[in-house]
Amino acid sequence: MNGIINVYKERGYTSHDVVAKLRGILKQKKIGHTGTLDPEAEGVLPVCLGKATKLCDLLAGHDKVYEAVMLLGQSTDTQDTTGTVLESATVTASEEEVREAVLSFEGPYEQIPPMYSAIKINGQKLYELARKGTEIQRSARNITIFELELLEQTDDGDWTLRVRCSKGTYVRTLCHDIGRALGCGGCMSGLRRTMAAGFKLEDALPLEQVLQAEGPASLLLGVDAYFADRPVLILKPPAEKKVRNGMSLFLPET
């Protein structure tokens, strides 16, 4: 099979779990996902099969949109509510102050990745070191928050955010940093990815629906689905030959 399945990853599964289950049911060796979601996160997870796996890096590098729930007044070692509480504080900030702090993170942003992440330093994943109680210095990474919106306050007093961001952004670190800016600490208590590389939440299929489908191939989007919003270029024979040999083209040649 060659194509893309827009899977809705539910909480409790790792992104690897989704790939492993699909590999088993579809008897497909070449398969990969396009951007890891933490086990407690849910939402859009495009999975590429066969020739479409060549798109994995392209898809993973595109903008993503999330809806996150931010808990103020609490800091944890994982920067979300699955971790150990390190500090608690009373939240005195008004809604306007929270909104101002949130919006201050829109735009280019130097973000220090959390210890509980899969980033490798000297060949070792940070979360492996964190589980041993070791914390090391991490360099800030340049990411971009393209859009950041404070949506509403929940009945529990948490705040919901809508975030459109670049590759490499940790939304739980964003929540942590907003809490730090407000002086009370913060962490993430929920996360749902609503868009990844153009694949949307409303089109995502629960894993069980994919696994139970009589003809899973019918659920596949063609490899060219990723390029649906790109302009079409009709190549002349000399230009086509260059493309087939992996050469670059200048538009006047097409």
Describe the SSE topology.
Elements: E1 3-9, H1 15-26, E2 31-33, E3 42-49, H2 56-60, E4 64-72, E5 74-76, E6 85-88, H3 95-103, E7 107-111, E8 120-121, E9 124-125, H4 126-131, E10 141-153, E11 159-165, H5 171-182, E12 186-196, E13 199-200, E14 205-206, H6 207-212, H7 237-244
Parallel strand pairs: 1-14, 3-12
Antiparallel strand pairs: 1-3, 2-3, 4-11, 4-12, 5-6, 7-10, 8-9, 10-11, 12-13
Note the gap between the termini.
31 Å
Fraction of helical residues: 10-25%
Percentage of residues in DSSP E strands: 25-35%
Number of helices: 7
Task: Explain this structure.
By secondary structure, the chain is of the alpha+beta class. The protein is about 25% helix and about 30% strand. It contains 7 helices and 14 strands. Strands 1, 2, 3, 4, 7, 10, 11, 12, 13 and 14 form a 10-stranded mixed β-sheet that branches. Strand 8 (about 120) and strand 9 (about 125) form a beta hairpin. It has helices at about 15-25, 55-60, 95-105, 125-130, 170-180, 205-210, 235-245, and strands at about 5-10, 30-35, 40-50, 65-70, 75, 85-90, 105-110, 120, 125, 140-155, 160-165, 185-195, 200, 205. The two termini are about 30 Å apart.
